[in-house]
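Worked example 2:
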Amino acid sequence: MSRISKKFLDLEKSKKTCLISYITAGDPTIAVTPEIMDSLVDSGTDIIELGVPFSDPMADGPTIQRACERALKQNVSCFDIFQAVENFRKKDKTTPIVLMGYLNPIERIGYEKFSRLASESGVDAILVVDLPHEEASDIVNVFKKDNLESIFLIAPNTDLSRIQKISKYASGFLYYVSLKGVTGASTLNINETREQLKNIKKAVNLPLAVGFGIKDAETAKSLSEDADAIVIGSAIVKIIEKDQNDKTKINDGIMDLMKPIRLGLDESGHTEG
């Protein structure tokens, strides 16, 4: 059983919602990235999403774009990220890690080499933002050979028939983008999102994560009634940006943000299958 499947199974048994946290690898430095990952786990994170810095993002809002720029100025590469994951795995063998990024860096390295190195470093899954399922079979099969799961995005305007087609290529979980926009947006309609989550869960068997626009414990707790996982990203990256020269302040800021969210999720109790 994969780390991701085991995590969701364990949380389901405990009636808890999975908390997924996103950071950009290499922000503020690649050396600090494993330490920030440790802080995320200590604050209640169940799965870590590591963003692969890219120069031309399509889904990232200004906060994450700036994080990518900070990392790219230091020439952070996929190979550096693999090493950071290896360093994290020296202490943590169980927390699932998802690499989230764009297809171009993977193609530059080559599907097989990228997949092998990611798996060997301790990565569990890959989310390629700009890869539609119609073009995904080759790379998904390569990932499968290295026991890497493939995470796919679905959007508010993705109809159920397409979601079902996407789910045939997906593994681990499906990531529902809760709004038509970029990361960090503030126009989330909670009631509408909950209705959409209910409809999607009737159509697919994979765990369902929801992200984009979730910034506080109240929103996370509400959405957890209809989702298996909550994703927090831009709010964490803003803390790193604000205190990028002070590791202690970054750690304290992450704790202050994430612990109330973790507590709220645990208090709500997760009943969805």
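The chain has one domain: 3-268. The CA atoms of residues 92 and 195 lie 36 Å apart.
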